[in-house]
Write a structure and sequence with these properties.
Blueprint (H helix, E strand, L loop, with lengths): L5 H7 L11 H14 L9 E2 L5 E3 L3 H14 L3 H11 L22 H17 L2 H21 L10 H8 L6 H19 L2 H18 L4 H7 L7 H12 L3 H7 L4 H8 L10 H18 L2 H17 L31 H18 L2 H15 L33 H9 L8 E3 L3 E4 L5 E5 L4 E7 L6 E8 L3 E9 L8 E4 L2 E2 L8 E9 L4 E5 L4 E6 L2 E9 L2 E8 L39 H4 E5 L2 E4 L7 E4 L7 E3 L1 E3 L2
Parallel strand pairs: 4-8
Antiparallel strand pairs: 1-3, 2-5, 3-4, 5-6, 6-7, 7-12, 8-11, 9-10, 9-12, 13-14, 14-15, 14-20, 15-18, 15-19, 16-17, 17-18
Helix pairs in contact: 2-11, 4-6, 5-6, 5-8, 5-18, 6-9, 8-9, 8-11, 11-12, 11-14, 13-15, 14-15, 14-16, 15-16, 16-17
């Protein structure tokens, strides 16, 4: 079968509205081709670099990665494996873990899946054999558990939980847990090169096919009402990795039509939905679109992404209140509380954004990614021990309530372990002609196919500059595309080898330098930042304070906080962190509306400001730096 041309691929995937012209024959040809070779071999608008070809350099992102690495290696493999062994009838003398991995918790085992992914991602992103081998060794022990069970089934709880799910009886979310394990196995296979991981994964997929096979469409639809993670996405990924079309059919059984139908029609019916149940389903739709070219699934994912990032996200890029969408789109000011926002949705929205950017190379997708990464992810890991947040409270007067080591293992603990293992995965993208520089993070990318390496030196956002130095095997023609962010409203400057360039670019676009590059060529970009306020769309008097892409939080002190109150108690009835009643304190009202930022605040240090002329002045610092103290993010203003 012939390879599709770029134009044929763009038609097949609906780029630039061409999907309406897609002939049935071309779609069938495209689908068959993708099933055999996988999406990675097809041309697209933008493609991410392999995570192994991006290395973080000294800076806050590398520091956060190192904290997470210590956290991962500090967990004992035998304790992680304990309930898998008990479920399989194998001996274990390890002490059980607590929280969501406790022996009586029906999600036990889910964190081990996240842990496998985190180890594989850490191993690939750092070239770290210790974390990579830790994951591979755990897979070897899981394989023994699967063999003992004999059916391909693998989990830390017995199949009886699935029996209850089939019967419509209470069962927390068994496919959610199985998805995490399967995704971790796939990551270990693809990133660590471990064949046994694929063998175990195929056994789980066979079991899943056998379990779902007898179910009619109506019964399967009922099953899909229970949270199931990204089973569809993972199975589509397995199909692409193996070329086995049976996994495509199995994945399609997990496509949730009740959710997809209104999205495909451009209708926001998200109110009342559990946020982190919904986003992974849509990522699955994005993956199906990539593997089949079916325009409908592009519409599902693209409309959802546009709606959530545009009308259902906070200044941090996060979304959800009490884990749900409780209001109509555009309602933000009344959706601020101690459970605003859950961390998992931010992790999943970043995954979806990577897909959207690959289809469009739209700098607005990179703008959102920057916002969510710097504000919704970076400050959710405690630098002392690597423990993670569940919620990022956005109501004033609260504090970040981190987990208690070995006694949380929340869903957000798992996604957080993954997030801080792959902080370099979306800094750079490429097409056939050049590189997209999307994020200003100290790092180095190796474009091995072109013999080109680019080193980015920056202290952003402490400084407003970044420099990009090229190293190449031989002179290379390449378009270097540097994102000019949405917040760069005062322009900026660019120089090449010390000579200022006359041209620049508008906010939310790319500065493109297309030339033949030689080793040592250096581009330096300056992007002046300024204080500004972002009002909520439904109430202009409720505002967040920003500096460039950075959310600034007001420091409100440590009144009433102790070592005990700064961490979630090891056991709570809901198994999620809860603040004591009436534990918040009031934040002052600020006078900012209609006034330039430098008139109501002064810079007092690197990324530190102090308000002036207020009834009560406060110090403002990056929200991602706030730890172990009360704060305010949104302010009532006059």
């Amino acid at each position: 079968m012939k390879r599709l041309s770029r134009r044929e691929f763009m038609i097949a995937t609906g780029v630039a509205g061409a999907a309406a012209m897609l002939p049935r024959q071309l779609l069938a040809m495209h689908s068959d081709l993708v099933r055999r070779i996988g999406i990675a071999d097809l041309p697209g608008v933008a493609r991410p670099f392999d995570i192994a070809n991006v290395r973080l350099l000294a800076g806050q992102f590398l520091d956060a990665t190192e904290v997470n690495r210590r956290y991962l290696l500090g967990l004992e493999a035998d304790r992680l494996l304990h309930m898998f062994r008990i479920t399989a009838g194998l001996p274990s003398s390890a002490a059980p873990l607590g929280g969501w991995e406790a022996p009586d918790n029906e999600l036990r085992g889910h964190f081990v899946g996240h842990y496998l992914s985190a180890c594989a991602l850490m191993g690939a992103s750092r070239g770290d054999a210790e974390t990579r081998n830790r994951g591979i060794a755990i897979v070897g022990e899981l394989a023994k558990c699967q063999k003992a069970l004999g059916s391909g089934y693998l989990s830390a709880f017995p199949e009886e939980v699935f029996d209850r799910l089939r019967a419509g009886k209470p069962a927390w979310a068994p496919f959610y847990t199985v998805h995490k394990i399967m995704a971790g196995l796939l990551d270990t296979y693809e990133l660590s090169g471990d064949q046994q991981s694929l063998d175990v994964l195929k056994g789980m997929a066979r079991w899943t096919s056998g379990w779902t096979g007898p179910l009619g469409d109506e019964q399967m639809a009922r099953i899909l009402e229970r949270e199931y993670g990204g089973m569809n996405e993972m199975l589509y990924n397995l199909a692409a990795a193996t070329g086995e079309s049976s996994y495509m059919d199995l994945a399609h059984r997990f496509d949730h039509e009740r959710i997809f139908e209104p999205l495909s029609l451009g209708r926001d019916s998200l109110k009342g939905l559990h946020v982190n149940t919904t986003i992974p389903k849509v990522i699955g739709a994005a993956r199906r679109y990539e593997l089949t070219g079916e325009p409908r699934y592009h519409e599902v994912a693209n409309y959802f992404w546009t709606e959530v990032t545009g009308r259902r996200s906070y200044c941090t890029g996060g979304t959800s209140n009490g884990e749900n969408w409780n209001a109509e789109p555009g309602i933000i000011s009344t959706e601020l509380g101690p459970e605003t926002e859950e961390c998992c949705p931010t992790y999943n929205m970043l995954k979806l954004t990577r897909h959207v950017f690959q289809w469009t190379a739209d700098p607005r997708a990179a703008d959102y990614y920057e916002r969510a990464l710097f504000n919704g992810i970076l400050g959710t890991q405690h630098p002392a021990d690597g423990d993670k947040l569940y919620y990022v409270p956005l109501a004033s007067g609260y504090w970040k309530l981190f987990g208690t080591p070995l006694h949380d293992f929340w869903c957000c603990t798992g996604t957080g372990a993954e997030s801080f293992s792959k902080l370099g995965d979306s800094i750079y993208f490429h097409d056939d002609n050049g590189v997209f520089v999307n994020l200003f993070i100290a790092s180095k990318v190796n474009w091995a196919e072109k013999g080109v390496r680019i080193t980015q030196q920056t202290r952003f956002p402490e400084e407003d500059t970044t420099s990009l130095t090229v190293d190449c095997d031989r002179p290379a023609r390449m378009a270097l595309r540097i994102r000019i962010p949405y917040w760069a409203t005062r322009g900026g400057t660019a120089s090449l080898n010390g000579k200022r360039l006359e041209a620049f670019a508008a906010p939310s676009s790319y500065l493109v330098i297309d030339r033949t590059w030689q080793t040592g060529d250096t581009v330096r970009i300056s992007l002046p930042m300024q204080l500004r306020v972002e009002p909520t769309p439904d109430d202009a008097s409720v505002q967040a304070i920003m500096y460039g892409p950075i959310v600034l939080a007001g420091r409100l002190g440590t009144e009433g906080l102790t070592a005990a109150t700064l961490r979630a108690p090891p056991t709570q009835p809901r198994m999620v962190p809860e603040f004591p009643p009436n534990s918040a304190i009031a934040a002052p009202t600020l006078s900012t509306r209609g006034i330039a930022g430098d008139a109501w605040a002064s810079r007092t240090g690197p990324l530190e400001f102090r308000t002036k002329g207020q009834q009560q002045d406060v110090v403002l610092v990056p929200f991602n730096k706030i730890m172990d103290e009360r704060y305010a993010v949104y302010w009532k203003t006059i």
